[in-house]
From TrEMBL:
<dbReference type="InterPro" id="IPR018485">
    <property type="entry name" value="FGGY_C"/>
</dbReference>
<comment type="similarity">
    <text>Belongs to the FGGY kinase family.</text>
</comment>
<feature type="domain" description="Carbohydrate kinase FGGY C-terminal">
    <location>
        <begin position="282"/>
        <end position="480"/>
    </location>
</feature>
<dbReference type="InterPro" id="IPR018484">
    <property type="entry name" value="FGGY_N"/>
</dbReference>
<dbReference type="GO" id="GO:0005975">
    <property type="term" value="P:carbohydrate metabolic process"/>
</dbReference>
<keyword id="KW-0808">Transferase</keyword>
<feature type="domain" description="Carbohydrate kinase FGGY N-terminal">
    <location>
        <begin position="21"/>
        <end position="265"/>
    </location>
</feature>
<keyword id="KW-0418">Kinase</keyword>
<dbReference type="GO" id="GO:0016301">
    <property type="term" value="F:kinase activity"/>
</dbReference>
<dbReference type="InterPro" id="IPR050406">
    <property type="entry name" value="FGGY_Carb_Kinase"/>
</dbReference>
<protein>
    <submittedName>
        <fullName>L-ribulokinase</fullName>
    </submittedName>
</protein>
<dbReference type="Pfam" id="PF00370">
    <property type="entry name" value="FGGY_N"/>
</dbReference>
<dbReference type="InterPro" id="IPR043129">
    <property type="entry name" value="ATPase_NBD"/>
</dbReference>
<dbReference type="Pfam" id="PF02782">
    <property type="entry name" value="FGGY_C"/>
</dbReference>
Amino acid sequence: MTEREVETVERKDEIVSGKTFLGIEFGSTRIKAVLTDADHTPIASGSHEWENRLDHGIWTYTMDDIWGGLQDCYRDLKKDVKEQYGVTLTKIRAIGFSAMMHGYLAFDKAGELLVPFRTWRNTITEEAAAALTKEFSYNIPQRWSIAHLYQAMLNKEEHVKDIAFFTTLAGFIHWKLTGEKVLGVGDASGMFPIDSNTKDYDAAMLDKFDALAEPYGFDWSLRDILPKVLVAGENAGTLTAEGARLLDTDGELEAGIPVCPPEGDAGTGMAATNSVAVRTGNVSAGTSVFAMIVLEKALKNVHTEIDLVTTPSGEAVAMAHCNNCTSDLNAWVNLFEEFANSFGMKIDKNELFSVLYNKALEGDADCGGLLAYNYFSGEGITAFDEGRPLFARTPDAKFNLANFMRVHLFTALGALKDGLDILLKEEGVQIDKMYGHGGLFKTPVVGQRIMAAAIDTPVSVMETAGEGGAWGIALLAAYMAQKEEGESLADYLSKRVFGGQEGVTEDPVPADVEGFDQFLKRYNEGLAIERAAVEHL
């Protein structure tokens, strides 16, 4: 037998005997499933494309979107397993579910959804976020679950009195499949502030919120309706018979599989890039973009541009989050593809991205005076409730393809750089390692080099970066099942998963760093143009 055939037989045996781990993550445009072997190597995958919808001014996904998408994704995974190994997936050692953080899913005592799911993308809680930030002396962004709850209270929404439980998307999936109303600490830190000493919700802030809620006369306290917080490695329940049927509509998946604490996409990104230790960071760049740095000490000041969340094991993390990243960039690439097709040229999409991205490296350091905004939706860091994709230039700007692609790559990280400059320049936060993952980094070198220019720090991409959050939550499931007593998540990842690999690193190019700073000055001065576009377009 060939080496490949031997490997296939070994993996088939692992699948049949239930030694694999499954991670499923709900991203903003794709639900992805990754099945790994006991050594954390991905051996099968499945996916389902989906998109949020704007319904009566609310960005949402319907229950049919959620369950239909999950079932289709799992079905695709089963198909991949069957085609590769000739067996049916029925046993799994441990499973984990993760999803986009934040948002608002509220339920009554009967478990019925009270209002349509309000996703992280909504910027409708400005009043509540500002009031809570002031009350707590702690930044509460608009997309946080507690901001959504308090805004609903301020709006005197009828459903609030009937709330028995509210949670995130990952927490909802986990609850329905296991019966457990729990949440991993990283995802929980995007619902309500976490005390990193207790690895639980901040008790003083809980009391402050209940004092704010007291005049409303609800028969619940905040502690009653939040999910229980768990840290990485804890058992979060098992797949129920009903849950197994929900996941696998064929009824072939066995119940009783242990499930790890559900996590947010920030936490799974940290796990997937080995960036859960102090002074490490990672940036996830896709439809949205966020960068996280694990802190060695508390920040000196409250910054409304910076989220304070945690790793899956509860360490404090500073996070700069932007709603917009590659959507506008992708739209321009699609336009170039349409242009090529009009001339009868059929170009491979990956090659098209590669050529256009690399063209950006030929441009002027500061993009030749061009300006663009990638705002498909509002942007918290720059204080926009709505967005308008925009490209502008002066008559004497150096308008060519290289600068055009470069400015759209730069602007994909423009708002993020504003946020990171607060951490790196104002707060003096130190980063030893920054890891990149997500669509922006699929083309070798280019995304890393642009990111390195933005933060003046080396940026590494691991060979496994393309596996993303679904692989990250599979790692957390494996950690729960395989960790030794006292073994930290950081040690488990460094020694057992990544084994010292550093990935491919791009150092910042001084001219790029200076060029990005020049672009950012133009970017911030031009925000008035973007504001006018929102008002008049």
